[in-house]
Amino acid sequence: MTQVLVAMSGGVDSSVAAALAVEAGWDVTGVHLKLADTPAHLQVQGKGCCTLADADDARRVASTLGIPFYVWDMTEEFQRAVVDDFAAEYAGGRTPNPCARCNERVKVVGLLARARALGFDALATGHYARVEGGRLYRGADAAKDQSYVLYMLGPAELERLRLPLGRLTKPEVRATAARLGLRTAAKPESYDVCFVPDGDTAGWLERRFGPRPGQVVDAAGRVLGHHRGAYRYTVGQRRGLGVAAPTPRYVLRVEPAAGRVVVGERAELATGTVELEQTTATDGRGLRPGRAKVRLRAHGAEVGCRVVPLAPGPERPGSPGTGGVRVRLDLDEPVDAVAPGQAGVLYDGDLVLGGGTVASTGSL
Amino acid sequence: MPYLDYAASAPLRAGALAAMLPLLERPAANPSSQHGQGRAARAAVETAREQVAALVGAAPAEVVFTSGGTEADNLAVKGAVLARPARDRHLVCSAIEHHAVLDAAAWAEADAGARVDLAPVDGLGRVDLSRLAALLQPGRTALVAVMAANNEVGTGQPVAAVADLAHGAGALLLCDAVQAAGLPGVDMAGDGIDLLALAAHKLGGPTGVGALVVRSGTSLRPLLHGGGQERGLRSGTLPAAAIAGFGAAAEAALAERRTGAAPALTALRSGLLAGLRAVAPDLEVNGHPGPGAGAPDPGLPGLLSVRFPGRRAEDLLLLLDRHGVACSAGSACASGAVTPSHVLVAMGRGPAEARETVRLSLGHASTQADVDAALAAVAQALQVLAPQASSGPQTAPVSQGVPR
């Protein structure tokens, strides 16, 4: 019998994924990852993915399904690979995607390695995406599709990954949970970054870094105002600039070394070319030149583009072999406010080709 | 199913169940009631009180039934602190006390004006008597807390010597004997213990009941107020059935101790350790029976705390569980995750070493067959985990698709 480890966050999606894994006839074991020592005063009921209530919900679902269940403390891995990285990216003037990073380092790839080491054949998760014939595809529910945060998976991972929700819609998942009497059936969605449970990313960063005051300038370098920390800003942001101007001003780029936030007109946000670094391809053979569609933020629209591979990019400090190739994307039409640090994910129809991290952008 | 987790909870003894059933089947049985059924329940409670007192060398009137070991420790620490004037609320706890003592002491420090000092332990987990003595403030120290034997590593403590030090400074001695009360046993009067905490389920009784044995004349403030049961120290209707089960378990544990159960259990554990060393030569033993343990061992005869270098205890436990073998890692936190043990850290182990530690504990119903089955499962589990251990720390085998 196929031995499958199921990652159970305590939400309805992974609960149903576990239930469907059991219905598929697999030998299923549930595991809940403890990702943070969230202080009680920051624990918000039903939010985030690491509260005590979530561990209890996951445990209860596992017992309803009659499967063994364990809690693994991955606090250190999560802190290092996701939380510290999140802070460092903002401090570097980029806009990270912590969920992609978590899937890459902890939830999917990290857990898969551990599952394999323990003798499991596969890992199942509650992501809305499909794995078919060893390739990664969009989930059937376009509104919930999470293929964007799984783009970094390669053939070795995809071969061992089971995504039981791939052909279901969210209402179908909730109906399945209700039919099976799972206590998580009506649990609210979690949207926020789980380690910033109050949703106040700027406040979280300020507590971590302290104030780093600097100037708000226009593209010509004229000082328009002052700010408490460049890390509070992300490309395309309009609020909280403290700048009086006849027309709305938007953040064009963040220059943390100089402590400057550069603002301008909306039209100046238009991005025509994007360079991706640390790219990966889901077939494991590298991104190739040609046409594709690219998505540049989690729930953003897709735009057609031409993929132009460049030279191998720089490695992450201390992580040899992490360069990938740099890839330039020439967009068919301009996209507003593409932030360095975000993931750029390439599609061919529903098939995920791969992607990388936005390194820089250019106008047309 | 091989059960090697007695230190977490021992299986209910048949005698304990037999003592409980008649009281559970009876229609109503408040031991405080003035009718025949109430008197019968009360009689069962008083029989149990005698049995529990006999187990620890105390007088029956000194036994205060509680909801378990945690409540007993809390009543002892908080009750002793609150019985003293604010300026004399100094506490000394060994660094390896159970959280029921340490966290109650932390509460006393935060909310009752107490000051808490922790007495360090050596590499085997034995409290350092000279450093403990140096922490005492004669006249000011209200309570010294040193457990009889540690729940995580099994190391026994020099309780009588600690009692002399504590009394010399005018302090009470709290001895948490939750693990040691059965084997090797404690002697309340002989060791000079003022407050002694017990839990029924570690002896083969039911969960939900325990006792604080309070030496007569000890001044203590109650935490629970109400009907004034247990001489006003612990209000609340006495759970007669659970208490009867506790008493029967205590009696059986005492009988075992007198008929040589401790050497028999030590021999079973020695076989377990030898078998583990055969499949894991790099294994390390935490605490007792440590290297050079020559003198009579006051520790827990059935407990073995071992570290498998390079293997996460979490992973080992999962694989053993899949073979139906039950044992423990470090202490489990509220979420159920395994957290690095404060006991091992106090003994000088790093957090990573603490995370590789597994606790195997034997008890009243353990057999050689349990040990053999556990050894077979450990051997298989280590085989599965071996590749991970030899491939270096934290190197996840990832494909080309994941370069970061």
Give an overview in words.
The complex is a heterodimer of chains A (364) and B (404). Chain A has 364 residues and is α/β, with parallel strands linked by helices. Chain A folds into 3 domains: 3-179, Rossmann fold (3-Layer(aba) Sandwich); 211-264, SH3 type barrels; 269-362, Elongation Factor Tu (Ef-tu), domain 3 (Beta Barrel). Chain A is built from 8 helices and 17 strands. Chain A has helices at 12-23, 52-65, 75-91, 98-107, 109-117, 155-160, 170-179, 201-209, and strands at residues 3-7, 27-34, 69-73, 122-124, 129-132, 135-138, 161-162, 214-218, 223-227, 250-255, 260-264, 270-281, 290-295, 302-312, 325-336, 343-348, 351-362. In chain A, the strands form 4 sheets. Chain A has a 6-stranded antiparallel beta barrel. A 5-stranded parallel beta sheet of chain A has the order 3-2-1-4-7, with helices on both faces. In chain A, strands 9-8-11-10 form a 4-stranded mixed beta sheet, with no helix packed on it. In chain A, strand 13 (290-295) and strand 14 (302-312) form a beta hairpin. In chain A, helix 1 (12-23) crosses helix 7. The longest helix of chain A is centred in the N-terminal third of the chain and has 17 residues, at 75-91. Chain A is globular, with a radius of gyration of 21 Å. Chain A starts with a strand and ends with a strand. The model of chain A is unreliable at 40-49 (pLDDT under 50). Chain B has 404 residues and is α/β, with parallel strands linked by helices. Chain B folds into 2 domains: 14-255, Aspartate Aminotransferase, domain 2 (3-Layer(aba) Sandwich); 261-389, Aspartate Aminotransferase, domain 1, CATH 3.90.1150.10. Chain B has helices at residues 14-25, 36-56, 69-82, 99-111, 129-135, 159-168, 188-191, 240-258, 261-279, 313-322, 342-346, 351-354, 368-390, and strands spanning 63-66, 90-94, 115-119, 141-145, 172-176, 195-199, 210-214, 284-285, 303-307, 357-361. In chain B, strands 1-7-6-5-4-2-3 form a 7-stranded mixed beta sheet, sandwiched between helices. Chain B has a 3-stranded antiparallel beta sheet with strand order 8-9-10. The longest helix of chain B has 23 residues, at 368-390. The radius of gyration of chain B is 22 Å and the shape is globular. Chain B starts with 13 loop residues before the first helix and ends in a 14-residue tail after the last helix. Residues 387-404 of chain B have low confidence and may be disordered.
